[in-house]
Model the fold of this input.
Amino acid sequence: TAPVNHHVYVSQCQDVATNLSIEHYLFQKSHPDSTVLFLPLRTLSDRDRQQDDKIKIIRRRSGGGTVFHDLGNLNFSIICPPATFHRDKYAEMVVQAIRKTNPRARVNERHDIVLDPGEPLNTVDRPDPEDTHRTAYAYGNGTVEPRKVSGSAYKLSRLRALHHGTCLFNSPNISGISEYLRSPARPYMKARGVESVRSPIANITDHQSESPSPMIQSLQQQIIETFIRKYNLDSNNLYPFSEPPSPVIGLKEHTQCTSGVIDAELLEIPEISAGRAELE
Done:
């Protein structure tokens, strides 16, 4: 039987450490020729569990800058062969999905996703709508600066490449995130990797005209559909988004694509359980 080359997994688990451990397991165990899209359904921080500022801190294996998780934040992970990886590739894919909600999204020179909040450009100055690095809206040059809505981190091994990122969709904590991420020790630290650059941020649902505001699940579905189109997959092989399979771990096998919904039951797998304990 030909190997399954594409996988879409949606996690129902609402625990950061568990989702990161599932991601790491997929990074280590998925077929080296396969491409995997992994989407934690929602990710909770301790701020969502408690009405105070006791926020849980977990170190990602990929390193990267600090990210903030709450119910208005959507995460995405893509695992692929290193030979097919470059930093803009999947950011561009996610921008295509975001533009279904907000056409101001683009990939910037740092491979982040930003919104251009300025006025619409004149028709003659507007770029090709398929250009994911330019929008039809003004920024800079004395206008309002772009607002970051998504940042990414990367991990490469000999056999696999991981790109994972966050999307600030409709975070209720948007006004306080910068303060949460501010470290008093920053002047005394020196990064060995790529330095994080502090940027003004926004929610994807900002500066968009759709009313009522779309649900975060709609963006998740758009990312799945964009992944399907990118690889010319048969969408009939995918479970309907609203109808997760049962049992959870019994994933549907296809010649082109597997898909399924996974949850904390995967902690029964020793590597995932051990990975979660390591992060805790």
